[in-house]
Amino acid sequence: MAPEKTEQLMVPPGTAARRLKQGAVKITVVGLGRIGLPTAALFAEAGAKVTGFDVDPSVVADTNAGRCKFVDEPGLGDLVRKHAKSGTIKATGSPEGAFDSDFVVICVPTPVDQGKTPDYSAVRHASEDIGRGLRRGTVVITESTVGPGIVEGLIGPTLESSGLRATHDFGLAACPERSDPGRILRDMRSLPRIIGATGPECASVVVELYRAALGVEPIRVTSPRTANAVKLTENIFRDVNIALSNEFALLFEGLGIDAKEVIDACATKYNFVPHYPGIGVGGPCLPSNSYYMIAEALKAGDIPYLVRMAREINDRMPEHVVELTSEALNRVGKTVRGSKVAVFGVAYKPDVKDVQLTPVERTMKRLSAMGAEISVYDPMYRGEEVLGYRGSKSALEASRGADCILLGTAHSEFKELDLVSLSKAASAKAALVDARNAVDPEAATAAGFVYCGVGRAFRVPTR
Amino acid sequence: MAPEKTEQLMVPPGTAARRLKQGAVKITVVGLGRIGLPTAALFAEAGAKVTGFDVDPSVVADTNAGRCKFVDEPGLGDLVRKHAKSGTIKATGSPEGAFDSDFVVICVPTPVDQGKTPDYSAVRHASEDIGRGLRRGTVVITESTVGPGIVEGLIGPTLESSGLRATHDFGLAACPERSDPGRILRDMRSLPRIIGATGPECASVVVELYRAALGVEPIRVTSPRTANAVKLTENIFRDVNIALSNEFALLFEGLGIDAKEVIDACATKYNFVPHYPGIGVGGPCLPSNSYYMIAEALKAGDIPYLVRMAREINDRMPEHVVELTSEALNRVGKTVRGSKVAVFGVAYKPDVKDVQLTPVERTMKRLSAMGAEISVYDPMYRGEEVLGYRGSKSALEASRGADCILLGTAHSEFKELDLVSLSKAASAKAALVDARNAVDPEAATAAGFVYCGVGRAFRVPTR
């Protein structure tokens, strides 16, 4: 392929907004998960003809039937139904849609494996599939979160199996999604996207596309690697700061200081941002994003000390909650073995129906292994099976005869717990372990529970 | 001493505001430094009769003459002059004023020694001095920043050498200052103070006193140790986040990514707070505060991994700037030995006249040791001696014949640097090393400098 001086894109700069409005833009979204589905829906809503390509036949069938499994994403179900019905979104199990698209948007998962190594097989497979029929002038945009350099070093070269050259023959851009599960649509419509491309015209066109589709002015950065670094940095900031609050929690437990009281007071200073301790960090983004950065750093010969240490601290928290539970049961004269532990909340964060990498699982498994009998109540999984447990229909049901209530997720519903009724339903002497600082310690104690909370002056008396 | 059920304070709860207004409250402030002097001034302004006790005779003389050396604290000089003249502040080298005071406020320095161990000798000496004549009912408030437990475990017991018992016979409280040098008066008048005492009446009275004197509603916490933990936690938050940005800077230099571009883009997310990389962290608070917490943690048998790692990363940054300088000189064909390096800014942070623990010193010393000739220009030390160097009168003067300009402090004045004139004054081939990301790289390059900046895509080309 002879390199060309000027990029020849199917949608040239200055035309994206108009063409989108006219229904003259074809977009293939690869991967119809929690990010891909709303991305497809919003592009369709903006006027694009959208093909959704997913390797899972049930996802394809659901999408074409207008069904959306993300019940915790406000507004998404309606949008998907509307565009499935009108045919502006068509799902398929074949990559062919990508072969005549103006834009291909990669939204496949990028998990980490058991050894905490990034697993880029889905983006590689997607790139191979797209590469098989990639047309000159198409722009391939990676929304999947990847380490800096993966777009230039893995996705681009894989797409070049098409015989076309990145930058010269097709556009290569990164526009990492930066939305928070549970508020994906809201974030997509309000947070500026970070866009980096390997060519200037491609960068301009992608900026125009997202501006027109989402109504928010994107931020253009130097390169795909820069855009990916932004995505990772903002999530690592959270991971490290949660780890710092967990480090304080462990320390303050030993010093007889209430970590929540400290952090609430710190929050009155103008340059402090509160993060709270808890059972650890889970979900599809936070823990993995730190590992992507660690992997790229090590490849470049750098050791990301803080990022790595933060991961280790957060990964240790589920064990700490096991220790708290064991000690709390000890204080009501019981062993873990033979105790009934009612776990309130298993989702990785409040008000989402998602247990990906939830730290609560590790705590439950360890307590099970120690001989505890686990019951589960999570309002997002009421009466459903989750993590191998049959979810109870109510907090009260899960608490019957419990020796310990373990609050694992700070779901909104748990702000209104009827502690007195729960205490009556539970065993005569019962503990309450609050792994999320969601329950008022005095209220729990007044209701008859022996209270323990992460970072709450547990190991020694306050004075 | 027979313990009493009720605390008998000289200023009982409910009376502090009225008495202060009536001029019927006597306060001794121990230590008339950057915190003690404004504290004394604000209490005097609120109506108290203030004695300032300082062991340094020149500070006593200056204060009584209405002189204030903190020229970088807006409004402080006027306040000190006013109250010295009217006699509402009287400075003395003897602790006797404390013996008939309603409140004694400890504002002495708490540095760390060469081995990074907290040096509490000034608070211990102050407590011994006060203890020699402490009167029943006095409240002793520690504003000095100390580790959690130092008020209860060191200051209280030392004061008990008076024969009086803390809580029962005298009040023991912590109200750590949380002001930022350069804006001390503004912060004291706007940031809520965090107050913890060992007795409930004492806590109430101290809350009333600070509310009345500063006009900001204080936050009452469980204990002095909690109040001190708040102060340390909010500063450690900054230290750790600056370390994280430095870690990213080092990593991004290796990956060809501009750290400042990344952080600026991250700052558009609602839950991200930007901290920028640089030459390291100095000043009277930040580095020391982390070491206080580390010391207390280790005493309690806990290892504060992140806090310690953050300190190590920040402490390494001056060396990294040496490396950048060496490499920048290399790129203009020069060795460090024999090169003239003009250092712009030596203060530990912008717009303060303060070089305590400034990281710039370490860089300068190392470059000197390697054979560089150093000239210094800092607008806060124009023509004065600082760190053993005679400060130049202008940036231009310092730059004459320089092979490298090293920007060490982001003083406001440096936003307006005339790079073209500086480049003309400097050696024909000169480098500019920006250790604070304060100069526009393109402008520096356009002016003829070879540019290097911390975290700015220096080690490898961007693409």
How would you describe the shape of chain A? elongated
Number of helices of chain A: 16
Q: What's the alpha carbon Rg of chain A, rounded to whole Å?
A: 25 Å
- State the end-to-end CA separation of chain A: 76 Å
**Oligomeric organization of the protein chains:** homodimer
CATH architecture of the largest domain in chain A: 3-Layer(aba) Sandwich
**pLDDT below 50 for ≥5 consecutive residues: which ranges of chain A?**
none
Helix content of chain A: 40-55%
CATH domain topology of the largest domain in chain A? Rossmann fold
Number of strands of chain A: 15
Main sheet specs of chain A = 8 strands, mixed
- The main sheet of chain A orders its strands as 3-2-1-4-5-6-7-8
How would you concisely characterize the structure shown here?
The structure is a homodimer of 463-residue chains. With 463 residues, chain A is an alpha/beta fold.
Topology:
Two copies of one chain form a homodimer.
Chain A: H1 16-21, E1 26-30, H2 36-45, E2 49-53, H3 57-64, H4 76-86, E3 89-92, E4 103-106, H5 121-131, E5 139-142, H6 150-159, E6 171-174, H7 184-190, E7 194-197, H8 200-214, E8 219-220, H9 224-255, H10 259-266, H11 286-299, H12 305-331, E9 340-344, H13 359-369, E10 373-377, E11 385-386, E12 389-390, H14 395-399, E13 404-407, H15 419-425, E14 431-434, H16 441-446, E15 450-453
Parallel strand pairs in A: 1-2, 1-4, 2-3, 4-5, 5-6, 7-8, 9-10, 9-13, 13-14, 14-15
Antiparallel strand pairs in A: 6-7, 11-12
Helix pairs in contact in A: 2-4, 5-6, 9-11, 9-12, 12-13
Your description of this structure?
The structure is a homodimer of 463-residue chains. Chain A is α/β, with parallel strands linked by helices and 463 residues long. The first copy, chain A, has three domains: 16-222, NAD(P)-binding Rossmann-like Domain (Rossmann fold), CATH 3.40.50.720; 231-308, N-(1-d-carboxylethyl)-l-norvaline Dehydrogenase, domain 2 (Orthogonal Bundle); 316-453, NAD(P)-binding Rossmann-like Domain (Rossmann fold, 3-Layer(aba) Sandwich), CATH 3.40.50.720. In chain A, 41% of the residues lie in helices and 13% in strands. The first copy, chain A, is built from 16 helices and 15 strands. In chain A, the strands form three sheets. Chain A has an eight-stranded mixed β-sheet with strand order 3-2-1-4-5-6-7-8, with helices on both faces. A five-stranded parallel β-sheet of chain A has the order 10-9-13-14-15. A two-stranded antiparallel sheet of chain A has the order 11-12. In chain A, helix 16 links the parallel strand 14 (431-434) and strand 15 (450-453). In chain A, helix 2 (36-45) packs across helix 4 and helix 5 packs parallel to helix 6 (150-159). The radius of gyration of chain A is 25 Å and the shape is elongated. The termini of chain A are far apart. The mean pLDDT of chain A is 95. At the A-B interface, helix 9, helix 10, helix 11 and helix 12 of A face helix 9, helix 10, helix 11 and helix 12 of B.
